[in-house]
Amino acid sequence: MSKQGNHRNNINPNVMNRFRYSQETAIEKPFNWKQLVRLLQYLKPYSKNLLPKSIIVVLINTVIRLAIPLIIGYLILEKAIYNKDADLLVQLIVLVGALYLIAYIANYYRIRWTHQLGQNVIYDIRKHLFTHVQGLSNNFFDNRSAGSILVRIMNDTGSLQDLFTSGIINLLMDMIMLVGIIVILFSLSPMLTIAVMIILPLMFFITTKLRRNIRRSWQDVLIVQSKLNSHLNESLQGIRVTQSFTQERENMAFFDGINTDTLERFRYAIKKNSMFRPLVELTNAIGTIVLIWFGVKLIQSGDIGIGIFVSFAFYLGMFWEPISRLGQLYNQLLMAMASSERIFEYLDERPIVAEIKNPVELKNVEGHIQFKDVNFSYDNKRTALKGINLEIKPGQTIALVGHTGSGKTTIANLISRFYDVTSGTVLIDGHDVRDVSLKSLRSSISIVLQETFIFSGTIMENIRFGRPDATDDEVIAAAKAIGADSFIEKLPHGYETEVEERGNILSVGERQLISFARALLADPKILILDEATASIDTESEVKIQNALRKLLKGRTSIIIAHRLSTIRDSDCIYVLDHGKIIEQGNHDELMEQRGEYYKLTTAQFKMLDVV
Ligand SMILES: Nc1ncnc2c1ncn2[C@@H]1O[C@H](COP(=O)(O)OP(=O)(O)OP(=O)(O)O)[C@@H](O)[C@H]1O
Question: Which domains does the chain possess?
């Protein structure tokens, strides 16, 4: 700990400030039944098989455990032994043995089925959450780190496991047990019962007093865990940059810091948590003392027999068990409340880009795109696009050029409806994109980005991503058409070479070629190339130009490029500046105008001359 502290002290504070992650904020809400009921909905699919089966075995087990002390104390001691009835004694012993056996079998199935039930429910919640998160709009992901989303899908659902595995079913068992014991105790000796029950308020006090503390401390653990995940995720993704700037020590210092924080908060939560059981056991001890002291007096005065006292002792032993377990369940519930609040927060998140009821299904897309007076802001503060009007006829190729941050990618984002316009309309084949089903819209568009995402799997699978039903021959044909085939053939296992997530074994240009092949195979009507050729060297670019010509043929294409040589042949070039179109026309027209495009082009030629 002190070592870690020293480690941190030597680091420039400016560096430590670099590590800021969008953090989970603790959601403070009191325990609420509505939330629990919502959580319990996940049991519904099992209401006809696993749930009733588990309840039946729990009931059998509970009833037997309740009956045994009565048989031993009241029937065996008070009736059979007291009356010296040997036959009855043997029968009762056989009965107790048989009941124990049944209880053990029931218990075996209780454990098996409740665990099965718990695992199934967690599987369902995780699936529901992942499916939901996957359908959320881009702005959701803009504001959250991958690490914090990961924590909710994995850790938060995981912490519900105990509740569904043992908690809920045990709750039933414990409640029946408690009520059963109280009823039996009262019927055996009301006076002794009242004496022993004096401890109940103490129990209640303990559970309510610790309640808030425990809940908060578990939330704290989840918060730092999410920070740790975010940092790990970022560190691993940026490992090369970290190593090249020799920032490992700073990275490590920060990691140490949050790792220690996690450990400490966990320790604190455990400390709070572990106070429950000893306190329950303390009350247990007090109860036993009261029983012996008061029970012996009642026996001496002849108010109760020895058999009733023995039954009492049995029941008292059993009585604290469900109370202590209910305390445990209470903890589980508090943790489940914290986790489920966080899970439901995501589940209640609605995609901002939502489909209308009965959306238009785009069929036989022609690829006619129009922007009418489009204004857009990502955050309602800064304007990304201002008064954009443009029209791309089916099969045309247009180019978007302009300085960094001028709004080129934003136009592409609005065509695919990753975001909705702030005002104005974007039309595809005459339909407002907001009226069109997202699936039919996005499956008509392929986007090739500069930063290509390669999924873990084979090269073949990666190219097939855009059209999962394509045959191997079709995949290979697409790769050949693009010119990717020659480098793929040289890989150790050709098309079957496994690439890890992000495709680290491939060069940036090779990844780019794969994404071209992916786009060609998907055969979209609309193609968006966002800086897609930026990572390809000039020699390969000649090949790529040929491939591009094939790729663009018969499609409406939008090319975003800083390297202006790639867009010369476009039907129309739009020059953007601070979210506005400031010039438009084909290459020759714009060169004649001697405006911004002319300046950009000549600047690039001069740079090439210098090189
Ligand atoms: N997800 C986002 N949230 C908030 N603002 C954003 C987001 N994405 C982009 N912006 C802002 O919107 C403006 C336009 O960005 P855009 O990505 O369209 O620029 P660009 O012309 O494609 O730039 P580049 O040539 O660097 O790719 C910029 O000011 C940028 O900071």
Answer: 2-21+32-347 (1.20.1560.10), 366-444+526-534+552-611 (3.40.50.300), 452-523 (3.40.50.300)
